[in-house]
Every structure is written in structure tokens, then in C-alpha cells.
User: Fold this.
Amino acid sequence: MDSDIVLTVDDGLVADAASFFSAGVHLLDLLDDLAENASVRWSVAELRRASAVSGLVADGDYREAGVAAALSAVRGLATIREGRGLPQDWTPEALTHAKDLVRSSGVNAKIETRDNVVWLDATLRTNIEEIAPWVREYFGMVRGQLTGVNVTRGNRASVKPHGGGRVVHVGFPSNIAQKFADG
Assistant:
């Protein structure tokens, strides 16, 4: 497999276009939230019809962050499917995107990376719906190094705090998006 992550919708069936495109959008949202940098660019590396199969590859300057996000997505979904709760590296936003992905993916869907395959089935649906996320949405200030900006999919930036720790994803209003993008 040349792709960093592969989404299959309606495996073995004629794919429902609405499920395929909706699941794809939710997968990109999940990957964006899990990436350490908001500037990861995803390209379609493979696309097959009948059962809708799309392989994505992270490319550009932030490829490593994309590959890590793909692994986190698949391993996290496996953790949830196995009934072990919310993965430690997931945010409430990641959980919301994962729920949307699972809800929209159709009846025979799977997501895979390297040798890891997770079926987006009834077991996962049940386990993911039982997880109630904590919410950490607040207005404030973060001091740190700006590591990435994404204005094409959601007006957000990644900031590495000066004091260390996990990268913080921050959102900002559309009226300052261009200023943010320009630095």
C-alpha cells in the first residue's frame, strides 16, 4: 500500500456516493485535528470504484506530521472499537470528527494504514457513542511558536507552547484569516 491511510466505503458493495464523500470529509477533519501541524496537505494517492476506496498520502513539508496523524487515527479507532475508551492523544474535537466519520461511513466501511485495519462497524459505533467528550473551548491567549496555519479547511493554526507540551490548535475568525496566513 502506497497510501498513508486508506478509506473504504461499502466494501464489496456498490458504493453510496453520499456516504463516500461525507466520510472522506470527516476523515480529513479527523486527520487535521490529530496532526501536530495545521499545514499538512493530503493528496489522493489511489482511487478505486465499485466499493469506493480512496488512499491518501501526506505530502509537502509536513509529511511526517500527516503520517503520525494517520497512525493516530487508525490506532485510536482500534482502541475505541476494543472498548478501551478515548485514546490519550485525542482531543474532544478529534472524537467529534471520529463520531461523524463512523456515522457517515455506511454499512461495510474500513480504514487502514500499514498493517492496521479497523472496521467502522456496529461495535465501533456503539463504543464511540458511549464516550462523552470533555469540552475545552475557551477564549484566551497562547504564547508559543506558530507551526502551521490552515485557512482552506477551517481557519485554524497550530501553536507549540513556549513551555513545552502538546501543540495547541487554535481557531480564529474569517475576517483575520489572511493576516494569519501571511504571518
Observations:
- The two ends are 37 Å apart (CA to CA).
